[in-house]
Design brief:
11 helices, 4-stranded mixed β-sheet, DNA-binding transcriptional activator of the SARP family, Arc Repressor Mutant, subunit A, 9 strands, about 240 residues, DNA-binding
């Protein structure tokens, strides 16, 4: 809805209301982002400790009150609900990360994602990092979770494109997954499968050789037997 409040966490923090960007202090941004990532909400004390871990309890509580005052409402719209000692993001607030999670549920269950007109935007969103410029310790686990979700989703999208013989789109989705985690073999294997489906055995072999060299250089290990067996089919007999 045009008059709804939206929070963007992917690629950087952004808050919009009725289509207009809302400028908020960093403390308010961090509180909104924390609650957006904790769907069930948080106790006030826990939120204060998480957001200001190096401050005294009194100072952290004061910082929280200030952040809450600045971010609880936009105009007549409530962004943060206070239920006793607990805080939670109002259900009416749209969060880009939650929207993406809903879109990729099939991929997270190992199902290929249907390739349609929305897939290009989905790949672009899955390529974005979670609040990349923030250095908060509480974001480490959230970023790890997001990275695992987007890796599986990008691979699912790539498989969906591949099954429909949309090879360029499949390759772009698979390479986006490779960019997220270069050592992840599953994404590289999809890249090779796309090249093979197009009849480009040379490109498939070249990609395998680059991946093998990267693994050896970075980790001192070799690709899995499954990957090696796939590559052996490309070598001249």
């Amino acid at each position: 809805m045009s008059d709804a409040a939206h929070l963007g966490l992917l690629g950087g923090f952004e808050c919009t209301y009725a289509g207009n960007k809302i400028v908020l202090p960093l403390g308010a941004q961090r509180l909104l982002a924390l609650l957006a990532l904790r769907g069930s909400g948080m106790h006030r004390v826990g939120a204060a400790e998480r957001l200001w871990p190096n401050s005294s309890p009194g100072r952290a509580a004061g910082n929280l009150r200030s952040a809450l005052w600045r971010s609880r409402r936009i105009g007549e719209t409530t962004l943060i609900e206070c239920v006793g000692p607990r805080l939670r993001l109002a259900p009416s607030v749209c969060v880009d990360l939650r929207h993406i999670y809903c879109q990729v549920q099939g991929a997270l269950k190992g199902q290929p994602v249907a390739a349609d007109r929305n897939s290009e935007g989905l790949v672009a969103a899955l390529s974005l990092e979670l609040l990349p410029d923030w250095t908060d310790d509480w974001l480490v686990m959230e970023r790890d979770r997001w990275d695992q979700v987007r890796l599986h989703a990008l691979e699912g999208v790539a498989k969906g494109f591949l099954s429909q013989e949309q090879y360029l789109d499949a390759l772009q989705a698979a390479l986006a997954a490779v960019a997220v985690e270069p050592i992840r073999e599953a994404a590289h294997r999809i890249v090779i499968e796309v090249h093979l489906a197009e009849g480009n055995a040379g490109s498939a072999l070249q990609h395998y050789q680059r991946f093998r060299a990267y693994l050896h250089r970075e980790l001192g290990v070799a690709p899995s037997p499954r990957m090696t067996q796939l590559a052996n089919t490309l070598l001249p007999s």
